[in-house]
Please model this.
Amino acid sequence: MSRTSGTSTAIRVLLADDEAMVRAGVRAILDSSGDTEVVAEAGDGREAVELARAHRPDVALLDIRMPRLDGLTAVEEIVRTVPGTAVAMLTTFSEGAYVTRALGGGATGFLLKSGDPYELIAGVRAVAAGAAFLSPKVARYVIDQGLGGGRLTREAQARARVAVLSPREREVLGLVGAGLSNPEIAARLHLVEGTVKAYVSAILDRLGVRNRVQAAIVAYEAGLVEA
Model:
């Protein structure tokens, strides 16, 4: 995906939220990072989809509750029509129940509006690099509240699922859960990136999950990552 701006390499971001103050705050945080550029802002989901098609940003950062078209439907539209754009959701604790649908729609990041500014920047960088990223507080909330069944039951199920993985695959899964991209995992484990891609593909297949965020949640529930 392209990351070039007029003067420097940058992660190009579309920001969508119906509250102008939220957009201003998020833009200020991203501007401070030095490597992100907000190329467009939308006040509703329909506008977000239209601007994503027009600008083809690296990352679309979407609020869940927006007029005209909610963020969950906008995720599905952007993933379907602008496949080169990664999507991350801006969430609040009260919106944990929507995570499953957002995951199914193709979102690969979940960030708290009230979270640490560094987490916002790190999350945008991670999803732009093709990794999954869950704010630690979001991950804990999802595990405790959002995915159905009792927590102990889900933990036992997750441990049983990862038991079929090799020790190296479990190690890679833990790093996926920590939000590392393939190049970062390769550097951490002293592997070539192609080998890491093969591991990740095998892990997704063996766990029966669609994307890295779903794998990351399994990693959290199985205790491979501290939320």
About this structure: The chain has two domains: 11-144, 149-222. Residues 149-222 form a domain with the Arc Repressor Mutant, subunit A fold (CATH 1.10.10.10). The longest strand covers residues 36-42.
